[in-house]
């Protein structure tokens, strides 16, 4: 397939509002804990992920502060950190971004999150209707980008007034850290075309992703720009397809219909996000038809807002599905799985070899070259493999 010869850029996810082994229950759940987030980040760094997405929202740890903490625990891992226009001035965000890029030695990526919950945005003091939020964001990033790229900016706009703003120190990356963004509405795509470097889509069926990529490409080309593309997906990868589907069923095995109904009501009542509506339309709150495309499972979206689909299967099966997305133009994957620490290992150990990704960085030799068989970690160590085996 065209476009599948270059390895994917693979990022993981920091579940900064909490984690767990089952959806819709407190059984085996893990509360938000910065120490646990550091464990995930260190594992992702060692296992060969290029970076991690740190989400934003009222239920999450503050993304810039958490990224600064995790940068101190990691070596090469990049941090895709959210900027939500309106929660602070573009000048203040420019100072945050420049400093975080400097203290992490150039490991910052920026993720524009305009927001799709009117209720949550009202709590942040943002009362603009859906499309107008993107007009506001456009002015915001006129100032932000000028500041972080040149050190000065001036705008007397309808929404943003920044008079002779300055930034004292530049970021490490030139001219600035890359900017990512995801949004499915016409207003979102028109906004993104003039601003971003990488467009992100949630895990919709390939034909829907292809349609969206075409719209974004056309909008960017109309403004003389080119963007690249990424996809946000959950993963349930096991050694066989059967084991993977069993794991998917187990993930929602303690999820009640009442909990599903309550979650879907929140999505309907509190969100004006077009992307969220597209996610809900994949399953419509029903748990009997969750495979919405080959190996694309919408069970997570029964209760999780935002990214609600997972690729389910053996390493070979999931790799084949990812190559279909690559052929459409996807070059970046932002992945997650429940629980995030254990699934980071599974995806790296099982899926990365199928994708041609290197896996763990700087592995330490475990022998002097002879093949060994794991013997359970006893006092005598591992067992040397019989010659020729």
From TrEMBL:
One of its GO terms (molecular function) is alkanesulfonate monooxygenase activity. SUPFAM superfamilies: Bacterial luciferase-like (SSF51679). Its EC number is 1.14.14.5. It holds the Pfam family Bac_luciferase. Keywords: Flavoprotein, FMN, Monooxygenase, Oxidoreductase. It catalyses: an alkanesulfonate + FMNH2 + O2 = an aldehyde + FMN + sulfite + H2O + 2 H(+). It comes from the Bacteria. Residues 10-331 form the Luciferase-like domain. GO terms for biological process: alkanesulfonate catabolic process. Gene3D superfamilies: Luciferase-like domain. Catalyzes the desulfonation of aliphatic sulfonates. Belongs to the SsuD family. PANTHER family: ALKANESULFONATE MONOOXYGENASE (PTHR42847), ALKANESULFONATE MONOOXYGENASE-RELATED (PTHR42847:SF4). This is Alkanesulfonate monooxygenase. It comes from Ectorhizobium quercum.
């Amino acid at each position: 397939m065209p476009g599948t010869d270059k390895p994917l850029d693979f990022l993981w996810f920091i579940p900064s509002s909490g984690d767990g082994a089952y959806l819709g229950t407190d059984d085996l759940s893990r509360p938000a804990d910065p120490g646990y987030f550091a464990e995930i980040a260190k594992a992702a760094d060692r296992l060969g992920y290029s970076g991690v997405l740190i989400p934003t929202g009222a239920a999450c740890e503050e993304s810039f502060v958490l990224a600064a903490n995790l940068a101190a625990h990691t070596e090469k891992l990049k941090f895709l950190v959210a900027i939500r226009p309106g929660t602070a001035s573009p000048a203040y965000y420019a100072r945050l971004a420049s400093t975080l890029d400097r203290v992490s030695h150039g490991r910052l990526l920026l993720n524009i999150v305009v927001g799709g919950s009117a209720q949550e945005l009202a709590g942040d003091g943002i009362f603009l209707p859906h499309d107008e939020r993107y007009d506001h964001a456009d002015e915001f990033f006129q100032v932000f980008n000028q500041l972080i790229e040149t050190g000065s900016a001036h705008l007397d706009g309808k929404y943003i007034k920044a008079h002779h703003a300055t930034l004292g120190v530049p970021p490490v990356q030139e001219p600035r850290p890359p900017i990512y963004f995801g949004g499915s509405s016409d207003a979102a795509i028109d906004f993104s075309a003039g601003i971003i470097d990488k467009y992100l889509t949630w895990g919709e069926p390939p034909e829907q992703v292809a349609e969206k990529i075409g719209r974004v490409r056309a909008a960017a080309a109309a403004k003389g720009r080119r963007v690249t593309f990424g996809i946000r997906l959950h993963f349930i990868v096991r050694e066989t397809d059967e084991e993977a589907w069993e794991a998917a069923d187990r993930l929602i095995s303690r999820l009640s219909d009442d909990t599903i109904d309550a979650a879907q009501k929140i999505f309907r009542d509190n969100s004006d996000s077009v992307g969220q509506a597209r996610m809900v339309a994949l399953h419509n709150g029903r748990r009997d038809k969750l495979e919405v495309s080959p190996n694309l499972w919408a069970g997570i979206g029964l209760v999780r807002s935002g990214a609600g689909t997972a690729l389910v299967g053996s390493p070979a099966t999931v790799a084949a599905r990812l190559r279909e997305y690559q052929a459409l133009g996807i070059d970046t994957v932002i992945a997650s799985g429940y629980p995030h620490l254990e699934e980071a290992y599974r995806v790296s150990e099982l899926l990365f070899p199928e994708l041609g990704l290197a896996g763990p960085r700087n592995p330490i030799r475990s022998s002097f070259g002879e093949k060994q068989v794991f013997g359970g970690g006893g006092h005598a160590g591992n067992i040397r493999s019989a010659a020729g085996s």
